[in-house]
Amino acid sequence: MAVGEIFLSAAFQITLEKLASPMLCFRDAEARQITNAAVKLWLSDVEEVADDAEDVLDEVMTEAFRFKQQNPVGNFSSLSRDFHFEIGSKLEKINMRLDEIAKKGDELGLKERSGEKGHNARPPSSSLVDESSVFGREVEKEEILELLVSDEYGGSDVCVIPIVGMGGLGKTTLAQLVYNDEKVTKHFELKMWVCVSDDFDVRRATKSVLDSATGKNFDLMDLDILQSKLRDILKGKRYLLVLDDVWTEKKSDWDRLRLPLRAGATGSKIIVTTRSGRVSSVMGTMPPRHLEGLSDDDCWSLFKQIAFENGNADAHPELVRIGKEILKKCRGLPLAVKTIGGLLYLETEEYEWEMILKSDLWDFEEDENEILPALRLSYNHLPEHLKQCFVFCSVFPKDYNFEKETLVLLWIAEGFVLAKGRKHLEDLGSDYFDELLLRSFFQRSKINSSKFFVMHDLVHDLAQYLAGDLCFRLEEGKSQSISERARHAAVLHNTFKSGVTFEALGTTTNLRTVILLHGNERSETPKAIVLHDLLPSLRCLRVLDLSHIAVEEIPDMVGRLKHLRYLNLSSTRIKMLPPSVCTLYNLQSLILMNCNNLKGLPIDMKKLLNLRHLNLTGCWHLICMPPQIGELTCLRTLHRFFVAKEKGCGIGELKGMTELRATLIIDRLEDVSMVSEGREANLKEQTISS
Question: Which biological process, per GO, is one annotated for this protein (predicted)?
Fold first, then answer.
């Protein structure tokens, strides 16, 4: 072993030993951070230095892999002296920071805590709670139904019915129950549902109503055009519109929004859900329906359905008493009841229930962020691997609808999904997701409950509080100053001038994530020159999502992002990928959906030995696959394979891809020259179309 290699090995060992010390106190700090700002800051320091150490280790492993690819007979010690010195210098700085963190931890009185008790295995068939089961809202539902189908409350202006109550009471659930009732469906010619949230904009809200009314996605237009179209569609129709989660208290906002809504027929109704009594007085034409907490009996019915297998509590009488005492602390809030029920699901140890009942967190009232004690408690009892997955989701804005499969791939790319036995990372990540769904950290979306998921706004508040500066969003009207602590950034690129937006991202060098969250509108998008200026400063990126932007080429320097695991270029105008993509040796997911102009893939794609997902769905102009793609034996999804007669591009390349799952579409089967070549592909266990 060379001197440089010995030095690096020793330096890494010192770093790992120093990291172990704060990690022993990590659970104590996790439990105290919600009520102690100094502890929360200490935790941020630990996470930051741990990320930096991980980046250095990743850099060494990547460089060693690259060197092995280019020099099969060489060894690690052959790496340059400059590289050894650079890594050693980084480790020395990390070790100094760890010494400071250890000293601060002692000053804060942080203590070592034992590992968390293992959780019961959950049967797959009952891992998800049926969210259509609602308790205790029958009276409120019937009252609102009566108002909706009655012509008594017409008049010259559209009737607005406010539903008012604190967060977590089930205002949205009640509105949905009414919205989906058969009587309502028969009574109204048109139904529309719009989630408004706190970032109110009249043009965007009008567009959302128009999109919901037509089922179409309208391009970016000015307010006058949008309102004219909406007025024409509503004219003479009896409609129901739900405006969910309204925060704006400005009468001028409401006056502008309702202009086209007056065009509807007599009997049209609007339901508004809000936490604010001021909102209801500004918008409502009817007395508000103030939602109260659930009764003790309804709370218990909801809780036992979630906490006990098949909702049967009879087998555990000793837990019933404790459970009912716990529910008194939930103050009738369905969200709190569901969260605690998910926490105690299949937990039969009386001690565990007593620990929840007697937790100090119940004694803290909601702070300015309105974080419910039940949510704090449930978060504290999450396994460590689920905590970082949950906090990461604060990078998305409130009411953002996400897909399970995409989020799991992001978690894997970030290193949050830990290998366990022979189980695939994707399956483990799916288990993580189901666990968070079970515990009510996620819930099914109103838009498409089978495909999309969303976080309740109070749950999002918790994730955002816990993330602190770790996650950052560039949004219209919000600060564009990004903290040096930020690791994950999302850009709502349909609301920004691209140059300003990307300059803000370039001010930090520690970002691991950059995601462009495309809306339903076309927008100004970053040019290649902007990306060319931006990418050099983002050397730590693991996730880069540039989907739905108008770029025609990706800068060659993308190949310098040596940590990159996830690259999404879907729905861009690219014709070719730069050859440097083939030096992204850590790349796991390459998503190229609907790249209609894409003509080919780089010839050296076979070097991406860690690639697990290559999505070519909708790449209709792709001519053939790169040669020897069969060497990518880790691939689990491919979606499309283009057969060609050139050497190394035939169907036989699929033979070694034994990990492929889901549907595989094979194009140009006419280029399979012989039956034996087709048999060689050995795809009998795959789902194939041609």
Answer: defense response
Separation of alpha carbons 296 and 364, rounded Å: 22
Scored b (16 or more CB within 10 A) or e, 648-666 reads: bbbbbbbeebeebeeebeb
The domain spans of the chain are 3-107, 138-290
Alpha-carbon distance of 129 to 436, in angstroms, equals 11
Eight-state DSSP code of residue 497: -
pTM of the model as a whole: 0.75
**Residue 23: φ, ψ to 5°:** -65, -30
What is the CATH number that goes with domain 138-290? 3.40.50.300
Q: Give how far the C-alpha of residue 626 lies from the chain's centroid of Cα atoms, to the nearest Å.
A: 32
Chunked into runs of 10 residues, the chain (690 residues) has average pLDDT values of: 47 64 66 74 81 81 74 59 75 82 80 51 31 75 91 73 88 90 93 84 89 82 87 94 89 91 92 88 88 90 88 86 91 88 87 87 60 81 90 93 96 93 93 90 82 89 89 77 88 59 76 81 54 82 90 89 94 92 94 92 92 91 84 86 75 81 69 53 50
Sign of the torsion formed by the C-alpha atoms of 458, 461, 465 and 467: positive
Long-range CB pairs of 102-109 (<8 Å, 24+ gap) are 102/18, 102/21, 102/22, 104/42, 104/45, 105/21, 105/22, 105/25, 105/29, 105/42, 108/29, 108/36, 108/38, 108/39, 108/42
